[in-house]
Amino acid sequence: MNILLEEHQEIIKVLLKHHVDFLLIGDLAVMYYGYGRTTGDMDL
Asked: pTM above the 0.70 mark?
């Protein structure tokens, strides 16, 4: 299951391409571990 919006995926791809260190936090990180919470935003 992909929990990321297409726009969020593109941001992450660019960060990875340019070797930028980042940390995904907030609701998307919580959802990754199986808990249902959504606000629709992405916290980096």
From this structure: no
b/e sequence 1-21, b meaning 16+ C-beta within 10 Å: eeeeeeebeeebeeeeeeeee
* Residue 44 near residue 24, CB atoms below 8 Å: yes
Answer whether residue 35 shows pLDDT above 90: no
Q: Which amino acid is at 14?
A: V
Q: What phi and psi values does residue 43 have, to the nearest 5 degrees?
A: -105, 125
Cα–Cα distance for residue pair 18/43, rounded to 1 Å: 19
Q: How far is CA 15 from its chain centroid?
A: 11
Which residue carries 């609701």 as its tokens?
A: 27
Both tokens assigned to 20: 């930028």
